[in-house]
């Protein structure tokens, strides 16, 4: 029996809200709009076995005698990771972008279909620290779509969460998108070790609605009582305690 079960089993259903995306008439048919991140899972995630070695449940290596509900399961069982990688919406690259190295190690050659809307600009000067392994050039993505959130909500724009397989790194920003909801430019840096094509439809940023609030940090060590109980309760499960007893499904459509 989970002694905290009554607290969590009848939680209120999540509020249904609408985020609106729009673009100008010039780009309706040439630039794809944002899509739910859950519809855009990477191949490496889809191909990952449910268990670390393979998908044979009879080959599980039970380890919960160590105080964990972690048999030899893969990251596909980690609901916090799943919630992150499927959070919000992905803004997609509207055209193939070609990248080639040049004689200058700090400046690549970049081009795209001349009939496509311009996806990238380059700022005239560098304003930010350069992430390790990237060109020292301040690039920006041209956003052709705007985001409008309900009153009291903002939009966090950031690198597609947990997508470090991509050959660029998009910087983060928060826009009060209930009050200012036009498209913007978003800074990114390009990895030096990449040469080839970034395909049309590649997610180039995540757009995540977040509710504005004022927060105050507080230290409360009494919370360890429930935390220690949860750690002991997990021992009764080969895996999945968090998903079954604590996790709440989030939906982005």
Short description:
This protein has 5 helices and 14 strands.
How would you describe this structure to a colleague?
The protein has 253 residues and is of the alpha+beta class. It has one domain. It is 12% helix and 23% strand. The chain is built from 5 helices and 14 strands. The strands form 4 sheets. The chain has a 5-stranded antiparallel β-sheet with strand order 2-3-14-9-11, with no helix packed on it. A 4-stranded antiparallel β-sheet has the order 6-7-12-10, with no helix packed on it. A 3-stranded antiparallel β-sheet has the order 5-4-13, with no helix packed on it. Strand 4 and strand 5 form a beta hairpin. It is globular. The model is unreliable at 64-69 (pLDDT under 50).
What does the secondary structure layout of this molecule look like, with pairings?
Blueprint (H helix, E strand, L loop, with lengths): L4 H5 L10 E4 L11 E2 L6 H4 L32 H7 L3 E4 L4 E4 L8 E4 L7 E3 L16 E4 L2 E4 L4 E6 L9 E3 L2 E3 L9 E6 L5 E3 L4 E9 L12 H10 L7 H5 L8
Antiparallel strand pairs: 1-8, 2-3, 3-14, 4-5, 4-13, 6-7, 7-12, 9-11, 9-14, 10-12
């Amino acid at each position: 029996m989970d002694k905290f079960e009554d607290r969590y089993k009848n939680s209120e259903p999540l509020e249904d809200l609408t985020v609106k995306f729009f673009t100008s008439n010039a780009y309706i048919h040439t630039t794809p709009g944002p899509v739910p991140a859950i519809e855009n899972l990477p191949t490496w995630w889809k191909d990952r076995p449910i268990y670390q070695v393979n998908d044979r449940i009879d080959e599980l290596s039970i380890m919960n005698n160590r105080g964990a509900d972690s048999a030899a399961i893969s990251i596909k069982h980690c609901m916090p990771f799943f919630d992150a990688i499927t959070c919000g919406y992905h803004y997609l690259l509207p055209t193939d972008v070609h990248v080639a190295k040049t004689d200058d190690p700090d400046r690549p050659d970049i081009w795209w279909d001349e009939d496509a809307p311009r996806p990238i600009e380059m700022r005239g000067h560098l304003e930010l620290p350069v992430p390790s392994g990237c060109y020292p050039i301040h690039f920006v993505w041209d956003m052709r779509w705007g985001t409008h959130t309900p009153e009291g909500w903002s939009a966090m724009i950031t690198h597609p969460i947990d997508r470090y397989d991509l050959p660029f790194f998009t910087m983060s920003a928060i826009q009060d998108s209930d009050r200012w909801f036009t498209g913007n430019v978003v800074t990114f840096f390009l990895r030096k070790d990449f040469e080839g094509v970034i395909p049309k439809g590649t997610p180039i940023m995540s757009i995540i609605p977040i509710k504005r609030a004022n927060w105050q940090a507080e230290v409360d060590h009494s919370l360890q009582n429930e935390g220690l109980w949860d750690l002991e309760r997990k021992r009764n499960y080969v895996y999945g305690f968090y998903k079954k007893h604590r996790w709440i499904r989030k939906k982005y459509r």
